[in-house]
Amino acid sequence: MSDQQSKPAQSQSSQPGKEHEMHPEPKVERSNAIGPKLKGKVALITGGDSGIGRAVAVAFAQHGANVVISYLDEDKDALETRKMVEDQGQKALIIKGDVRSAVHCNELIDKAIGEFGQLDIVVNNAAKQFPKENFEDISESQLAETFETNIFSFFYISKAALPHLKKGSSIINTSSVTAYRGSDHLIDYASTKGAIVSFTRSLAKNLASKGIRVNGVAPGPIWTPLIPATFSKEHVDEFGTDVPLGRPGEPVEVAPSYVFLASEDSSYMTGQFLHPNGGEIINT
């Protein structure tokens, strides 16, 4: 928001102090406080075809951003998300492929730049989870697929995107409440989500001097396709009822966190996580 790193030496003789005597006076309003927060921006969202990714794509479009939607193989969902973005008057590019591949991740960025000529926001959101009640039942192949999807892709995408990001750009990583409280039946998944927290905090420090902010969102139980695709009917019936608000959240309730972190509203935040989790208290 400001290029000034420090303020001129000054003092006042009494508290709480007088703002009109300060030089410069504190900034208390933004020129873009009303209207689209992401006008003219281009965002890439992995796992953007459905669930949280779709809600974020639509919210970004509502705030004036064009969107690149990365997805695995859910063609119908991806086409619908593209339509939803276009219905907001914005452009959407959908790209199919597996983000476990570093080659594909590089191609994603190349196609985004080829289509829009810029990239301002990166949302690393793609994830998989495979519940196992017994730790010893986590196979090597499952472990590899979970880590390659949930954290390796974050490295690949961020690294490929970095040459195109500039001061004011934003990287937003999707973690999970499980990173903070653990999960007895999603040990490998929770481990990747914990890695995302450390990745976010570390990359934020690394890129701070470039003016590129790196933050994250750690949702609680959110009603997305990943839930019925993961759990039994009985588990789905009880999903999300154990949080203080007593219900699972909707993707639309999570998307504003991403808009905030992508916009100038969060210009003094980096290395931080927001927690739309239904009221569960966790150690941040």
Automatic annotation (TrEMBL):
Residues 1-33 are annotated as: Disordered. Gene3D superfamilies: NAD(P)-binding Rossmann-like Domain (3.40.50.720). Keywords: Oxidoreductase. Pfam families: adh_short_C2. It comes from the Bacteria. Residues 17-30 have a biased composition (Basic and acidic residues). InterPro entries: NAD(P)-bd_dom_sf (IPR036291), Sc_DH/Rdtase_CS (IPR020904), SDR_fam (IPR002347). Residues 1-15 have a biased composition (Low complexity). The keyword Oxidoreductase applies. Belongs to the short-chain dehydrogenases/reductases (SDR) family. This is SDR family oxidoreductase. It comes from Litoribacter ruber.
